[in-house]
GNAT family N-acetyltransferase (Sphingorhabdus lutea), 179 residues
Amino acid sequence: MKIRLANLDDVPAIKIIMDRAIAELQASFLTKEQLAASTAAMGLDMQLIHDGTYFCVVDDGQIVGCGGWSRRATLYGGSHSGKRDDKLLNPKYDRARIRAMYTHPEHVRRGIGGMIIAKAEQAARDEGFRAIEMAATMAGKPLYLSCGYHIESEWMDTQGAVPVPLATMVKNLSDNLPE
């Protein structure tokens, strides 16, 4: 498997992975109504591709996972989502964001998410960020815990017609900094 920056030609394949990951990997954590609300609220934020902060993991010529990070204030959601804030974060006092992590359901538990997390954390570290955060789905929490994140808070996303549970998870990018 190889990891590379995503480009505009990847968007159709990324959207398929996102839809399948939401429908299949979150099914045991959410009701049917919450799955529909997740599909409506989540998705690809094209700003990530334009900023060069979104990655694809490719195996045998096929995209099997995607995700990235952001130096912008928006915490989660696709380009179409509400509550967007494209303001640039200040690495001296803001946390970078992990964004839009998805693995094709037929390729889970092969290290894809970990590859993306490691690449995103290093890129954020290289830009001077000292900490990073995300809005994690219930299905994603075990991966992020295994990558050294901790749960700061659990809350309900109310962007859609039905509230969906999420967790703010954070990690220091430097060993000697408080979170």
About this structure: The radius of gyration is 15 Å.
